[in-house]
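Sequence in, structure out. Go.
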Amino acid sequence: MIVTSIYPVRLSDGDLWVDAGRIAAAGQGERIAGAGVVVVPGNVCAHTHLYSALARGMPYGLEPPRNFVQILQRVWWRLDRALDERSVRASARVGALEALLSGTTTLIDHHASPNAIDGSLDVIAEALGDLGVRSVLCYETTDRDGPERAHAGLAENRRFAARIRGERPSLTRALVGAHASFTLSDETLAACAAAAAELEIGIHVHAAEDLVDEHDALEAHGVRVVERLSAAGALDERTLLAHGVHLSDAEILEASAARATVVHNARSNMNNSIGRTRVAQLGHRLALGTDGIGSDMFEESRTAYFRLREDSPVSTADWPLVRLASSARLAGRIFGEPLLGTLEPGAPADLVVLDYPAPAPLTESSFAGHWIFGLSSRHVRDVMVAGDWVVRDRRLARTDAQELAAQARSDAEHLWRRLDEIAPHPFEPKGGFR
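Output:
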């Protein structure tokens, strides 16, 4: 069974053909048989933090955080300052491994390593490219580590984006990264917007993830987050607003009018106890990401759906398919590939072969139910990106997963030792704690 589109759902009983990195007409290039398997477009993770890949089980000896800002100060803003080139590369390789083995072929990453800024995006791009992942990369520009690092972060975005624009590699694109309104001065935010406009790319920024972002914007700038972004020239159809949990009705309307994309990260929001995103109000440009909790979009989309059903039991099973298709369209716009996320002739050949013996009829009307209640990353057998097999028979095609994991364990120990020497971050927003 070939799923040529996950939304609207379109199925084909025939085979698939791939030629020169794209889905081809029947009889041209390599034949991918659809009998006995389910072939779907590769999943897109629209917002992640690969630098968190070595954090699982990370030792923690401080007082437990009581709110979102303390989570940042005591965990993530310590971890990012511990990163060096070695751990940046290892994190990217682990993230690539887990993405591919779970059927995710595109990662839109938001990176931060304040003590290893210069060239960090090249390191990530190389690591992901070596394993065969399609990616969109940026550096998290912020003022929380001082003006020198803010300038360096913006310079890294500019340098990398200019290189990508000149070279046009097949698997990598760039955005301008910015952390969040509450860690951005007016000057830095304006500089990010100017860089994005000059380079003709979007801005990838956290927006209203926690109430502190809104409180700070009102306290320091007299406006809410989206209005501040808009006034700075940082809100348009290329903008990615990560989270959007606490956007007001007016902000949702403004973001929608600008055709910006909001990326929902259900598991991360639940883990950080920051509230429920009003996904029903956010419109058709709502994508799905993981915020660094792995790259399994089967699991993420299912969790987001069940979270939605708690509040809205009339929501139908095709909801996650709509959101995943939106994520793919987002990536397609960035790559200039409008058919990305489909298996239509001419689309980039990013696909996943699922070894899924359907226990009930699999049709266009029942596919959503199979996605929610049957299909999962455990069914991923083979993965192709841009016409190249990167997973075959559940094994990475370009490297040994066991060797990669063994090296990553050593790199994680190195990172954790560095982390022990780093105190909680002193930065505090003007809006106070929730």
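Check: The longest helix spans residues 147-167. The domain at 42-337 is CATH 3.20.20.140 (TIM Barrel).
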